[in-house]
Task: inverse folding
């Protein structure tokens, strides 16, 4: 049996090859056939085998974001102006002004997450006066983490807010002395005011949403991502908002493997949602590129504890346990894995009380269930999670909000928020991710920077050596570790024969570059199932064609993506 393709003259560094000198791989079909030296692997070829030189680049397994909102992000990507990676607020405002001039009515200019004022040299957010000067007629909506949104006067008019608009519980509308909204919407700490205002903006048409999703996946490929677990999300309705991804999968146009969770949409009717879905959907239904992954990250709305560190920790409703228990029991009875958004240990403790009760009736240790976030999880709760066979999906939200956490809770309390090393020492499965795109950037290298340096994106030292990971361990968690969270650890995430042939060839050696260079790493070639889905630099001739960006006014077309990096690649696609 001869390989279809051989990649040689590389340095393969991932689980399965960390302790070996591996420079080449043979691929048959969509899977790794054999790893070895150049001579050993090249001897396997025949006249039909394709041979590709890796130019002595470092190669890692394809990165796997275990908590991202790709489906929602893809639908909106082409109409959002990204400030991810910019280091100057003046540059950000200039891009905003330019985009406001080219955006046609009734569309908005949106800056939706992925940035923090600490990344800017000015160390501040834009003001309402600044965004009102930028555009009088085109609505401008800027989302800052999940704590506030800044709207210019045109956007306030577009959503119909005036002095008579009432705040929802846990929200605030900043007003002037006459009671009129100023344009600042604040989560105190309920972010529903931010979601609902954003949801009133115009959407792209279906063909533009398809185009947008293709370009978002290619941007993830450019950064080395080959797999994700989509965590659902607010105002992401099943099955309607999944139609674009379904179409792309049926057309064999997915360049990222997606395991999707179903996120309940109806407060007070969560059990009804899951009763319906467990009758119509099957766990793991789908294929290697797109499949169902269970329930969450929201199981019941009463368990939402909001990660806004500008506000005090909210106390959850007394009804939480009574609402959560029947949902988790139903999921366990149907052998559905489940995930729960839980920032604080107080939330985790109460959820574990429910889980332990159900575990006496239906063992949970085979379900690959897990908590998301867990910034303040205690050692006692870590032990309880381990005893129930659960996992913890960790994201780099502290890289964007660490300064706020320190201001509220102190430097001592951030040292183990989250306590990654303690969780790993307990033997709990850990996967890494970003929670992009509305808070953190989708760039995985910011997360890997945070993991291995203990610093925020603004350079604040959050952790000491007791809670910082080696670069090898960080890559393992972002690949093999994350595969556990879609129950795919036997299929991907490692350099092991017969696993899916997903890998990324890096622009720089992650394992040796200076700390600050980690944030600038990208993939010069990304391979999914043996097929090249992205290539740049010396591999540009292998880059698959992209459709022209639509709509014609798209911010991506004019500004590129992360710090403008994809602009060159897009221009190369005529």
Result:
């Amino acid at each position: 049996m001869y390989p279809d393709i051989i990649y040689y003259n590389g340095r393969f560094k991932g689980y399965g090859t960390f302790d070996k000198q591996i420079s080449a791989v043979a691929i048959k079909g969509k899977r790794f056939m054999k790893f070895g030296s150049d001579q050993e692997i090249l001897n396997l070829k025949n006249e039909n085998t394709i041979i590709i030189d890796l130019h002595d680049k470092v190669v890692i397994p394809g990165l796997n974001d275990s908590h991202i909102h790709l489906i929602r992000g893809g639908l909106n990507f082409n109409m959002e102006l990204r400030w991810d990676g910019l280091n100057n607020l003046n540059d950000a405002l200039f891009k905003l002004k330019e985009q406001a001039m080219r955006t046609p009515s009734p569309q908005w200019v949106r800056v939706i997450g992925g940035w923090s004022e600490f990344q800017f040299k000015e160390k501040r957010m834009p003001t309402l006066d600044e965004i009102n000067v930028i555009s009088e007629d085109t609505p401008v909506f800027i989302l800052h983490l999940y704590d506030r949104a800044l709207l210019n006067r045109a956007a306030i008019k577009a959503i119909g807010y005036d002095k008579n608009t009432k705040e929802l519980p846990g929200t605030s509308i900043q007003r002037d002395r006459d009671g009129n909204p100023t344009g600042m919407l604040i989560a105190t700490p309920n972010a529903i005011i931010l979601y609902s205002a954003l949801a009133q903006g115009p959407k792209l048409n279906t063909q533009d949403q398809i185009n947008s999703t293709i370009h978002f996946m290619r941007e993830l490929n450019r950064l080395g991502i080959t797999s994700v677990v989509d965590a659902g999300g607010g105002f992401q309705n099943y099955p309607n908002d999944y139609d674009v991804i379904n179409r792309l999968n049926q057309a064999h146009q997915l360049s990222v493997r997606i395991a999707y969770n179903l996120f309940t949409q109806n407060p007070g009717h969560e059990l009804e949602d899951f009763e319906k879905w467990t009758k119509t959907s099957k766990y793991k239904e789908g294929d290697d590129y797109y499949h169902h992954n269970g329930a969450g990250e929201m199981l019941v709305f009463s368990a939402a504890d909001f990660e806004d560190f500008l506000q005090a920790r909210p106390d959850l409703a007394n009804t939480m346990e009574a609402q959560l228990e029947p949902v988790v029991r139903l999921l366990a009875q149907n052998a559905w894995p489940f995930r729960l958004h839980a920032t604080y240990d107080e939330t985790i403790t109460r959820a574990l009380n429910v889980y332990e009760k159900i575990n006496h009736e239906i063992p949970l240790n085979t379900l690959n269930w897990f908590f998301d976030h867990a910034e303040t999880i205690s050692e006692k709760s870590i032990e309880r999670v381990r005893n129930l066979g659960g996992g913890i999906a960790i994201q780099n939200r502290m890289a964007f909000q660490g300064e706020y956490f320190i201001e509220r809770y102190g430097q001592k309390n951030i040292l183990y928020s989250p306590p990654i090393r303690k969780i790993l020492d307990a033997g709990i499965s850990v996967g890494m991710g970003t929670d992009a795109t509305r808070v953190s950037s989708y760039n995985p290298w910011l997360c890997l920077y945070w993991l291995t340096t203990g610093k925020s994106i603004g350079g604040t030292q959050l952790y000491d050596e007791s809670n910082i990971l080696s670069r090898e361990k960080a890559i393992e968690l972002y690949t093999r570790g994350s595969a556990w969270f879609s129950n795919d650890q036997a299929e991907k995430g490692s350099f092991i024969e017969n696993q899916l042939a997903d890998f990324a060839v890096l622009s720089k050696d992650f394992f040796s570059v200076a700390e600050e260079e980690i944030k600038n790493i990208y993939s010069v070639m990304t391979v999914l199932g043996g097929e090249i889905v992205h290539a740049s630099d010396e591999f540009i001739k292998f880059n698959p064609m992209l459709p022209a960006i639509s709509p014609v006014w798209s911010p991506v077309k004019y500004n590129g993506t992360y710090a403008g990096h994809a602009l060159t690649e897009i221009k190369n696609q005529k």
About this structure: The first strand starts at residue 5 and ends at 8.
